[in-house]
Hints:
Keywords: DNA-binding. The chain is mainly beta. It has one domain (19-113): CATH 2.40.50.140. The protein has two helices and six strands; from the N terminus they run αββββαββ. Strands 1-3-4-6-5 form a five-stranded mixed beta barrel. A hairpin with a 5-residue loop joins strand 3 (42-51) and strand 4.
Amino acid sequence: MLSQIAKRTFSSSAARANVARFTAIGRIGTDLEVSQSASGRPYLRYALAVNGPKEHTSWYNVVVFDEHAIDSLTNYYQKGSHVYVEADASINTYGEEENRRSTLNLVQRDIRKVGSGRRPGAGEATEESA
C-alpha cells in the first residue's frame, strides 16, 4: 500500500493550459486611469516604467479588471509608487503584411509595493499588497 502512495506518476498527455506570465519591478509611470468597457465592466490602466542598464527605461501598459484590485490601486497606489507586478501576457498582431505590428498585452494578476513609492525621506506610509 505504501509503495502505491509513494509512487510518482507522470502523464504523457498534453498540458491542459499554457501560461505566459510577466513579472517586473518598477514604478507606476502614469496616473491611474479608471474606465468602463462597452459592456459596463470597470477596468483600470497604467504604465509601468522599468529601469534597465545604462539609464534605459522600458514602458509597459498594464490593465486591471479585478474590481477589488481596482479599489486597492486607487486607494493605496499612485504615479511614482515602486511596485512588483505579476501579469498574464499575450501578443496581439495586427495590420497588413507590409505594416504588421505587434503589441504586448499585460493583464495584472498581482501587485505589491516594494517601497514607499517616493524617494527616501518623503515619509509616505506603505500598503503591502493589493
